Amino acid sequence: MIVKQEIEELFPTPLWVVQLGTAEAAAFNAKLKAEIEKIISPRPKVPTGSNWQTPQDLHTRPAFADFTGLVEKAARGVARYLQVEQFPMMITGCWANVNPPGTYHPTHNHPNNYLSGVYYVAVPETGSQLVFQDPRPVMIMPRIGKHSRVTANAAVSQTQPGRMVLFPSWLRHHVPANDGTTERISISFNLMFTNFAETLAQPSWKPTAGGNQEATSPNASASSS
Ligand SMILES: [Fe+2]
How far is the CA of 174 from the centre of ligand 1 (A)? Predict the structure, then answer.
């Protein structure tokens, strides 16, 4: 006889969503929008379907100091959650994207970083999505009417001004075409451990007395079985 049937979630992929208050976001975004416009002005002509991007050094510019502070605060929260706060992280790149109607970002991830994220300065009236792909290979995908978070092979994150989303840099994602009538403005960023080679990259196993390597054991978390 079955006495109970439970579900355990293995290897969940976290997405951290940080939301500013509406009034605060409006003022903050107006400032950010003006600074971004200054950088890309006069806007060079780009091919139809392309977008404008700033240089990737916004985190080093005084005009973006408040934004950098926000990213660092959010990243500290993530590090606390993951219990890696003893290893300092730094922003390695930060840039703004201005997407006119009809433009999109194809599928990609952010190599050589630990965390990545995006903050929304302006979003079209019709809304805008950020779509994440399931990193696991899909072998069987039954044609069911409605996929759940357990059976779907993609997950949609809705965007809105004043929202920041942080995710593991390896997680592939894309931005569907802007089907609104106004520009979509976002600021993307990457973070990596500042002293990765010094503090994290060394082998985690100990050599045996005879010089043979001990097998590396997986970093298993506690399991009930
Ligand atoms: Fe991205």
Answer: 7
